[in-house]
Amino acid sequence: MKPNKFFLVTALVLSTSAFAFSAPAKGKPKGPPVPPEILAKYDTDGDGKLSDAEKAAMKADLEAKRQELIAKYDTNGDGVLDATERAAAEAAIQAERLAAQQAKFVTLDTDTSGGLSLAEFTAGAPTGATAAKIAATFKRLDTNKDNSLSLEEFTAKPAKPTPPDVTAKFASLDTDLSGGLSLAEFTAGAPKGATAAQIQAAFTKVDADADGSITLTEFSAAPPPPAKGGKPAKK
To answer: How high is the pLDDT of residue 97?
Structure first.
């Protein structure tokens, strides 16, 4: 079975950090944002993006890593990773990611409370991340809403990336940059003709944890408010 040549790209990105910040969109997105950790390593000219030469250097490193893992996990010696071998490699990468995240958690937990405050979390944020983005990421990871990140929350496997268009719409509605949509902000994005009662009902449904604020995860996982006539509108 022929493997995906660059399946390691996703695995390596996921293994870097619990911090997943998206750069503000300028015009129509051309693809997923480059993770800050990747920029820090390969953006040698410091212009905030990867040039063709910098992309080539990144791809060369990824190819070298791919070959290294093939050598390590190609148990049948055919020069490629079949489904079983690939699963073993991915499991090993995830185990390394978890170990690295556990070590980072201990380092950031300066008061040894067993949980990270926003200040402690901020200390480990990527260079250039804004306070608003850090706070939004903290809120997204803090699934039990106790204003502290447990080891389990900090090391949780990153969620599937949200489509750029949904992310852009959420960002346009989040006018106070809180990382969550209030009912008023949610209402601003409601389809023309939607009644206040319909919008309130949709807000309550989308706000899965009932904290009065809709996160990007909640927003992307649920349908938008209904349009006039009761049919959901497209995001």
So the answer is: 86
d(CA 209, CA 94): 28
| pLDDT tens digit sequence for 134-151 | 999 899 899 899 999 999
Nearest-angstrom CA–CA distance, 129 and 227: 37
Domains and CATH numbers, the chain: 7-130 (no CATH), 164-221 (1.10.238.10)
pTM across the whole model: 0.49
| Residue 235 amino acid letter | K
Give long-range contacts, CB 8 A cutoff, 24+ apart: 159-166: 159/217, 161/32, 162/216, 162/217, 162/220, 163/220, 164/25, 164/29, 164/32, 165/29, 165/235, 166/216, 166/219, 166/220, 166/235
Please give the structure tokens belonging to residue 232: 């959901």
pLDDT digits (tens, 9 = 90+) for 31-78: 556 666 777 788 898 888 889 999 999 899 988 888 888 899 999 999
